[in-house]
Amino acid sequence: MTEMTLGDAARLTGGLLVGDGDRIVRGVCSPEDAREDMLCVIWDKKALDSIPKNIPVLSSTGAVTGRDGIELENPRSSLIFLMPHFDRRIGDPPGVHPSAAVHPSASLGEDCVIGPCCVVSSGAVVGSRAVLQANVFVGKNVIIGEGTRVEAGAALQDFVEIGGNVIIHSGAAIGCDGFGFAPGEDGAWRRIPQTGTVIIGDDAEIGPNCTVDRATFGATRIGRGTKLGACIHIAHNCDIGPDSMLVGFSAIGGSVRTGRGLLAAGMTGIADHVSVGDRVTIAGRTGVTKDVPDGLTISGFPAQEHSAEKRFQAYLRKVRDYGERLKKLERILDGK
């Protein structure tokens, strides 16, 4: 198990050391699992009262007194630096597993990992230090950037481009055909070939069981640094801006354009061809049916500014009372 001194942890996080800097910690834990050899992370100062004094803690400024620990203005930010140090998941050594099928024309960078039963098709390029876990399918002419990790069971279909330091979680399907059909004269649906691609920017993360459809023509794009949660569908020809975050079970319709820094909560839906501006926040279970300008927070179905939606919901909850009052007035008017 990885370990470090409390002093080293303070230097790593930029926090203020309180107490014994030579004390050894072997991981990070929550208050429910507090142990003497672990650094207990406390978001709420009130929880400190329930933590024994012999357990080191990481908490907000001014909260650590009479014990060993680290103080930070934003304790949650410390996890960015601490958790990689204590990550116990050990990757496979570089190389190609004997059960993998790598086409002779594929290009593998230095120190990449091709796991058991992977398929790397003709013309594919796998960057240095990239990791393909077991049962990953890489289609023809796919490009995978340096340091990207593709987890078990993901599929990257022909011609898609994945940037560097991307994480694609298990079960994701990148570059599956967009849902393109047109009715024929006989009323039967005719398939429209989806000849475009998918381009995912550097430092993005695609959650488990997400689908990102290839474009009909051109490219479906996921911006640099954008994070997708689990079970999200991005339809064909979407352009999701950089540094955005979409939470699980969201569905984005075809040809949607979003700006930088979109924050879309769980079960969000955006209709086809809608444009969403920069720094927009979409509340959970919101249905967006028309364009949204920069900087708004929206909610409801159909979506509107959050303040207006809250007023609407407040009125809606009074409808029953209004109905009863109306019945009383009707009885009075009828002389009953």
Question: How would you portray this structure in words?
Answer:
With 336 residues, the chain is an alpha/beta fold. It has three domains: 4-86, Udp-n-acetylmuramoylalanyl-d-glutamate--2,6- Diaminopimelate Ligase, Chain: A, domain 1, CATH 3.40.1390; 95-309, UDP N-Acetylglucosamine Acyltransferase, domain 1; 312-336. The chain contains four helices and 40 strands. The chain is flat and about 85 Å long.
Low-confidence stretches are none
Measured distance between first and last alpha carbons: 81 Å
Relevant CATH superfamily of the largest domain: Hexapeptide repeat proteins
Structural class: alpha/beta
Quickly list its features.
Udp-n-acetylmuramoylalanyl-d-glutamate--2,6- Diaminopimelate Ligase, Chain: A, domain 1; single chain; alpha/beta; 336 residues; flat; 12-stranded mixed sheet; 40 strands; UDP N-Acetylglucosamine Acyltransferase, domain 1; 29% strand
Topology:
Elements: E1 4-5, H1 6-13, E2 16-18, E3 24-25, E4 28-29, E5 39-41, E6 57-60, E7 69-72, H2 79-86, E8 95-96, E9 101-102, E10 107-108, E11 113-114, E12 119-120, E13 125-126, E14 131-132, E15 137-138, E16 143-144, E17 149-150, E18 155-156, E19 161-162, E20 167-168, E21 173-176, E22 181-183, E23 189-191, E24 197-200, E25 205-206, E26 211-213, E27 219-222, E28 227-228, E29 233-234, E30 239-240, E31 245-246, E32 251-252, E33 257-258, E34 263-264, E35 269-270, E36 275-276, E37 281-282, E38 287-288, E39 297-299, E40 304-305, H3 306-316, H4 319-333
Parallel strand pairs: 4-5, 5-6, 6-7, 8-11, 9-12, 10-13, 11-14, 12-15, 13-16, 14-17, 15-18, 16-19, 17-20, 18-21, 19-24, 20-25, 21-26, 24-27, 25-28, 26-29, 27-30, 28-31, 29-32, 31-34, 32-35, 33-36, 34-37, 35-38, 37-39
Antiparallel strand pairs: 1-3, 2-7, 22-23, 39-40
